[in-house]
Specification:
The protein is α+β, with helices and mostly antiparallel strands. It contains 5 helices and 9 strands, in the order E-E-E-E-H-E-E-E-H-E-H-E-H-H. Strands 1, 2, 3, 4 and 5 form a 5-stranded antiparallel β-sheet that branches. The protein has a two-stranded antiparallel ribbon with strand order 6-7. A two-stranded parallel sheet has the order 8-9.
Amino acid sequence: MNKAILVGRLTKDPELKTTASGVSVCSFTIAINRRFRNAEGNYDADFINCVAWRKQAENIAKYCVKGTQVAAEGRIQTRSYEFIMDLYTRDIIAYKISKRMDNKLVMDTLNEAIRKQKDVHGVILHSDQGFQYTSNEYKAICEANGIIISMSPKGSPVDNSPIERFHSSLKRETLKSYNITSLKEYVDLVKEWILFYNTKRIRLN
């Protein structure tokens, strides 16, 4: 059973749109305070993106504004992706999208990048310290192809900023700008967007 009940406050006014077939859809984000304090003694919050359809979407847009406390009941869907970026050109060399962020997703993306680039000996491949990037399989693939593994120390994610900025643009211009109803639809949309990003989109290095 996939059922979730979320109680929190809206971070901004809901956005109501209509699909090509005339169906109302509303996007909104709920901020939910955690029950425990962090190391500084403050309460952190989680920000959950939500989508409502038809009459419920219309009611949310009509009666709710930024700061409104709401209780949302529905199901949770997740999408995971892996991208490898050329830091010099900012082009996306390889990417994969899956329902889960696991070793297979990372290895498939890495192998795709190796196939496309062919000669990767001496290439520095930077990542965070996620379990996928510290796995023996990841290390073995990199070592076999002469790839140098790079990771930032814990608490120093500055080297991750280029790909994090890319992730932000991707989410803003795909997930938050379209009414996605399936993984296939999202994969097709990202494929079009990556082509646009690599060939036409203005980027500041």
